[in-house]
Amino acid sequence: MSCNYAEGLSPYDDKGILGVPEKFDSAEKLREKSQILADLIKDSKHIVIHTGAGISTSAGIPDFRGPNGVWTLEREGKRPNINVSFSDAKPTKTHMILKKLVESNVIQYVISQNIDGLHLKSGLSRKYLAELHGNMFVDECNLCKRQYVRNTPVETVGKKCSGVPCGAVHIGGRSCRGRLYDAVLDWEHSLPENDLLAAELHSSIADLSICLGTTLQIVPSGNLPLETVKYGGKLVICNLQPTKHDNKADLVINYYVDEVLESVMKILNIAIPTYNEQDNFIKLAEHSIIDWTISRKDIIALEKIYKAKCKGVKKKRILIKNKIDGILEDKVKIIKLEIKDEIKSEIK
Questions:
Q1: What's the CA gap between 286 and 295, in Å, rounded?
Q2: In the annotation, is 133 catalytic?
Q3: Among 14, 47, 59, 217, which has the highest number of CB atoms less than 10 A from its own CB?
Q4: Distance from C-alpha of 110 to C-alpha of 221, rounded to nearest angstrom
Q5: Rounded-to-integer distance, Cα 242 and Cα 135, Å
């Protein structure tokens, strides 16, 4: 069961703020905010999505800090009533919408804190996905660091050795002498280097970051959307609970992520695909080897884009509060940007 993942982690007291009551926008406010989000998407050139446990609750996988989250109930000696196994869980409407928007070149990257493998099952390509906290369906070699998709969830968490030899072959035909470990992080582990670097670069390049189903409490992943803000981009947060960065967001939506994105897709006139098991990388791994390693070439290309867009440029943000339904909202803002180019003439 998916709760076993949380139980497999090392004891850790500082799990953040738990059990904060959920908030829901009115139907009219939701329509207006969905239109604003759709307009922001239309006007943006590089969009990055940050996903948390809240996008998987409709698949039956409980979140951690919600009113019925794993860690919230843990304080009371309880367990979630709904708890689908990682093997049985299917991608949600949100997972399928994100895959479609990536394939349509509307979204450029997805940064996930989730280890449930649902982005994998949706068929979202590794080229467009950073998995900051690991994946229950991925093994990693301790020597060459290559990653491979599994067809079953790992039996351990915390980067423990499975004893299975790595199947990679190096230049010259020599087999790798490493062993495969689970790729799921425990509290003390550093985030995977290439995933974190890709996430940082994309977040800095982005002119729009959209946070879905995360309270943004865990760092450094929770602070990545601020890189977009730092370089003059806009920030949208969609979550049922308040987040630590609501006051920095241009738009805060308090409603179910599935329904928000469904409304946005209607406005954008883009059809929502259904889950197709033939696109599921985990199913494909039953019959073939699926290399899940981030391409170093992609990282190098990103670094060049980052240097061209961000190096030496400082941007100042002036926040102008926005009205929805005639009511002034502190957490819904329109950003007017003043960009000052600080690049010295001698830098080519």
A1: 23
A2: yes
A3: 47
A4: 12
A5: 26
pLDDT tens figures, 247-280? 999 999 999 999 999 999 999 999 999 999 999 9
Pair 185, 160: CB distance under 8 Å:
no
User: Tokens in use for 109?
Assistant: 């990257």
Q: In a 10 Å sphere around its CB, with 0-12 CB exposed, 13-18 middle and 19+ buried, how is residue 215 labelled?
A: buried
pTM assigned to the model: 0.87
50, 95, 119, 133: which one is catalytic? 133
- Using CA atoms in the order 8, 11, 16, 22, what is the torsion angle rounded to 10 degrees? 40
